[in-house]
Amino acid sequence: MKTYEDMRSELFVDGMAIRDYPAEYRDNKEIARLAVQSDGRALCYVSERLKDDEDLALIAMDNYPKAYEDASIRLRRNLKFTLMGVNADRENLLYAPDEVLQTLPAEAILYAHGGTLEYMSDEIKDNEDLVAIAISNCPDAFQFASDRIRNNPDLVKQIDQDSLNSKIEDAINSVIDIQDQTDQKAQRTYNDIER
Questions:
Q1: HEC profile for the chain?
Q2: Interval 10-24: pLDDT, tens
Q3: pTM (2 decimals)?
């Protein structure tokens, strides 16, 4: 049987070794931290409790951006955490819960995954700027644009990357502000109940 020090040394070199450890060690934060620091993919082998640890999940995403998928649903329901995940890898948007997706502006969703244009409203499919954002990372998304745009492809202007980043950042910041206000209101309500 491996000693605690043997495990620490092994994980320093191979974080995925945690998959073979007994449950008690996969639930040890120090052991789990060593594993995800070495290899972010190791997050999928830590205990459910530690998959809910934001610091641990962020360390894992730093080393393996797709580790977002293995973070707890509670973390993925957090808008800020999801935005960090999407910033690390656009495809993480595929693993974001619906309630988070519903709060994101269309610009952010289309920038992360242009193919989602297929599931957007007719109004969005007929917006030249939003279609341009979608096809900037997924040229095949053009097939989901409105007939008006598909019949007049010149309507979709080549999108300026700096302008796009600014629009997306503004949209995301407004969503974060709304979430912060909601969190503050919930905290005030909780404090009122506690009195």
A1: CCCHHHHHHHHHHCHHHHHHCCHHHHCCHHHHHHHHHHCHHHHHHCCHHHHCCHHHHHHHHHHCHHHHHHCCHHHHCCHHHHHHHHHHCHHHHHHCCHHHHCCCCHHHHHHHCHHHHHHCCHHHHCCHHHHHHHHHHCHHHHHHCCHHHHHCHHHCCCCCHHHHHHHHHHHHHHHHHHHHHHHHHHHHHHHHHHC
A2: 999 999 999 999 999
A3: 0.68
